[in-house]
Each structure stands twice: as structure tokens, then as C-alpha cells.
Amino acid sequence: MMAKQVEQDQLYIGIDGGGTKCRATIYSIKNGVLGTGLGGPANPLHGFERTIESIMVSTQLALQDAGLRIEAVHNLYAGLGLAGVNLPALHEKIMRWDHPFKQMFLTTDLHTACIGAHEGGDGAVIITGTGSCGFAMVDGVSVNYGGHGFAQGDMGSGAWMGLEAVKAALLAIDKLGPTTSLSDTLKQHFNTTTAMGIAEQMAGKPSSSYAQLARFVLAAAEDKDDVALNIVKEGADYISKLAHRLMENNPPRLSMIGGLSEPLRKWLDPEIAKIVESPKQPPEMGAIFFAIQSVEQQSEKAV
Fold first, then answer.
1. Second label for 107, Cα 20 to 30 Å away, from 117, 147, 298, 303?
2. How far is CA 186 from its chain centroid?
3. pLDDT tens, 253-269?
């Protein structure tokens, strides 16, 4: 396979790290996107070492896709948008990482998602993937709501939805809660016949494992299962309230990003559903724009 032609201009890499996967894109000012790579979970809240591993795996695959030698990593200006680094301790920990890039610029996945969704312009964004959170940038002032983490909140997210499904299924199996098709679905999925069999297999699992169960809830809701419908409607109601809160800041655009953004849209408050616009660029491109802006700001300060 012929390597892609790479001009000798400055190269950037944008990295979008969330609770389930990490995407990396290498970008040339002259030639645009050169290569992409996909790694595993990259939320330092759920494991610092795993996050670093996922960043490096996605970076290496993007370099290969771009036809670049692995040593080229030292020439990359890196923009990183990671889940979890809104917590100061985790931000500091990542910043202390002895990274291989020419220079690294770190911010939250919400920030880079917003930059990408509106191509650097003002706007608001809601992430509904493994976790959930809202962010808006208007006239240089940013606000964010939610994003408190799987155990504390993240309503409307895949992980929250999966957890609610497990809880409902266990109650139904023990005949302590309403009957739901989720019980049989999860017993089949985990190849068990008991509530304890499900509980044992989910014990200690990260948010990404619960997020993988969200598809069962959405499917059951489409089949009019009352328990699943209540879960989906409760999640969508939270996301709608989050959107209304963001719109109080008068952003010119609102986008939703993440694996549940499309499935949840039909359940949103109609007033919100009609104003949601597709993101102009993906979060990893937002991370690239963030790196470019950061380099330009450094250059201006140096003059």
C-alpha cells in the first residue's frame, strides 16, 4: 500500500478521549486530514494508565494510516480533549505525563466537541455517550453543566441507561419490581438464569460496560416495554432540561454528540428537538482547532 504524500509543513493531531473509545486524527494545514486511529477507553477518572495506553494506540494507528514513521510523533502538536479532566486533579495528572508529542494542549472533551461542532464559533453542545454533559461557549465565556461522573449522575447517558436496566431486571427477577422484558434479555446476554448471575458478572465493571447495555433498553422501549420506556423518557427528560439550561446562555447553535444523540432525539422535548443541529465537525477536529489556536496564541505572545 502506497504511503500518503506528506508535505513538510507543521502537523497536528487531535485526540478525543471518552469512556468507551479514543479517536485520533492527524492533520496537515496544507493537505487536511492525513490519517485516523481508534483506541480504547480514555477517561482518566476510570484509569490513568488505560487512558495513556488508549491515547498512544490511537496515535500510532493514525500515524500508520497517514503513512508516517512512528518517530514522527515527536513532530506533532497535540490537542487533547479528554473526559474527566474537568476535575483539577486529573487535569494536573495528565499535564505531568511525559508525553512524546512536540507539544501538548489539554482541555475537556466537551470543549473540543463544542469547538468542532461549531467550527470554532459560539454554540452549545450536549454529549450523550458513555456519560452525559452540557457545555456552551458564548462571547468567550464558557459554562458546563452535569458531567459529574457515572456514580454521581450522568443521567441520559449510555452508562446510566445500562445501570438502570440492570437494576430493573434484578428487581423483576426477584419479583420485587414490575415485570420487564429486560430481565430475559439480560439473562440471555449474560448466559445465566438468575439475578445473582447478572449481578456477579457486572460487579466492579466500569461505565463503558454498562453503556454497552443501553441498546437493549432502547430496543425494549421501541417494543413498548413500560419499564424501558420509563428509563428512556427519564433520560430524555434530563437531557431536555440540560438543553434548556444551556440555551439560557443564548448560544447561536445547539448540537448533540455521542452514541445516544440520534436514538434519544425522538424522545426529547419537541421545543429542543427542533433546534438541535448536526455538528459541523467531529470532536477530534475540534481538538485540532484547539491545538492550532493554542500554537497561534503562543506565537503572538512571543512577538
1. 303
2. 25
3. 999 998 999 999 999 99
pTM attached to this predicted model: 0.83
Angle at 272 between CA 134 and CA 140, to 5 degrees: 40
Angstrom distance (rounded) from CA 165 to CA 161: 6
Residues 6 or more apart whose CB falls under 8 angstroms from that of 287 comprise 14, 15, 16, 25, 79, 80, 81, 112, 115, 116
**What are the grid coordinates assigned to 261, written together?**
444523540
Residue type, 285: M
- Beta-carbon count within 10 A of 71 CB: 9
Question: Can you give the length of the chain in residues?
Answer: 303
Q: Hunting for cell 448536526 — which residue is that? A: 278
Q: What is the DSSP letter of 282?
A: -
Nearest residue to 249 via CA among 150, 74, 123:
123
The vertex-140 CA angle with 253 and 86, nearest 5°, equals 90
Across 41-189, the runs of DSSP E, i.e. the strands, are 76-82, 103-108, 123-128, 132-138, 141-146
